[in-house]
């Protein structure tokens, strides 16, 4: 009778995955993938980390759309909520939903002004007549 193989773990997904990755902080990406359940055990008992599944699940959990097409026929991501959070690396990311809505192009520049409880972005070299006019929904 051969020894029973341990069943493969159930990998984390969604918000649970993102929270666990943040919690694991300074571990390597391979260690994070393993801790989040993205590994299998071979017949010989060797653990293999599945980085591709881990990274794809993390991208999906963050709502990042990699395979969208120009005419909007790609898989739907999250809709723009007009709220963002500071990422674990300290960055604030303004997604493409906002930049597309404003018609921004790569290379467009902004002036950053810091207030006590706000950050203001003002596009450089643009007609100021429309500065505070809201975009149509």
Highlighted features:
single chain, 137 residues, alpha+beta, two-stranded antiparallel ribbon, 4 strands, 12% strand, elongated
In short:
This protein is of the alpha+beta class.
Please give a structural write-up.
There is one protein chain. The protein is elongated. Strand 1 and strand 2 form a beta hairpin. By secondary structure, it is an alpha+beta fold. The termini are far apart. It contains four helices and four strands, in the order H-H-E-E-H-H-E-E. It has one domain. About 4% of the residues have low confidence.
Helix content: 25-40%
- Average pLDDT taken over every residue: 79
Residue stretches low in confidence (pLDDT < 50, at least 5 long) are: 70-74
Order of helices and strands: HHEEHHEE
Apparent shape: elongated
Q: Helix and strand layout, with pairings?
A:
Elements: H1 14-23, H2 29-35, E1 39-41, E2 47-49, H3 51-61, H4 96-102, E3 110-114, E4 119-123
Antiparallel strand pairs: 1-2, 3-4
Helix pairs in contact: 1-3
